[in-house]
Design brief:
Elements: E1 6-12, E2 27-28, E3 31-32, H1 33-41, E4 47-52, H2 57-63, E5 67-69, H3 79-90, E6 95-100, H4 108-116, E7 125-130, E8 133-134, E9 139-142, H5 146-154, H6 160-164, E10 169-173, H7 190-197
Parallel strand pairs: 1-4, 1-6, 4-5, 7-10
Antiparallel strand pairs: 2-3, 6-9, 7-8, 7-9
Length: 201
């Protein structure tokens, strides 16, 4: 039986409108936000890709020694589904581990735990539900969902929940995961950013 392969996908294609500047390059404890996602992914995947907004590509190339790609031209700017589909189209893997660039508390241990659920071949996606909220951008997707994503993109159905509605999803809760508490905390605006910077470490 062949060993399954995993590709890490770091989504950094958003415009960070609410934040006011690129979230990927916001700093927390002397590291860029995106570096926390890289650290969580790198030892758990066979390859790692950053899906970059066009204006950030050069900065990523200067800062990171990781493969940087942009959305496929026909789906440019169509949100996370476009980024995930782009990596699925350009690579060959069994599973894709997705992380956003604005969760600086995400951990290597969380990614390891999510990957353990891929043993079940009938599952299309592993998606946490934390505090009653689905977390489809801190999740793992099987390569077979690429066709579903492509159809959604063509139909201009761009919500992650619309993808989940077409998949056999294994939802995992904090009961299934050993969490430190803040792994799923995403930083949307400067107020939230100030708050974490003033927290005692």
């Amino acid at each position: 039986m062949k060993i399954p392969t995993f590709i890490g996908v770091l989504l950094a294609g958003g415009e960070s409108r609410r934040f006011g500047s690129p979230k990927a390059f916001a700093q927390f404890q002397n590291k860029y936000f995106y570096e926390y996602a890289v650290d969580a992914l790198k030892d758990n995947v066979d390859q790692l890709y950053i899906v970059s907004h066009p204006v950030l590509e050069e900065q990523f190339r200067n800062e990171a020694s990781i493969s940087i790609i942009q959305d496929l031209p026909e789906f440019q700017g169509n949100g996370p589904l476009a980024g995930i589909f782009t990596v699925m189209q350009k690579t060959n893997s069994d599973w894709y581990v997705i992380l956003p660039c604005d969760t600086p508390f995400v951990t290597d241990n969380l990614v390891k735990q999510l990957i353990t659920f891929t043993n079940d071949q009938s599952i299309d996606a592993i998606v946490p539900i934390i505090n009653d909220r689905q977390q489809p951008l801190i999740a793992v997707y099987h390569a077979r969902v690429a066709k579903k994503i492509e159809q959604l993109l063509k139909d201009k159905k761009l919500k992650m929940t619309q993808l989940l509605g077409t998949c056999n999803v294994k939802f995992v809760t904090d009961q299934d995961l050993q969490l430190q508490g803040m792994e799923f905390e995403n930083i949307n605006n400067k107020t939230e950013y100030e708050k974490i910077n003033h927290k005692p470490t």
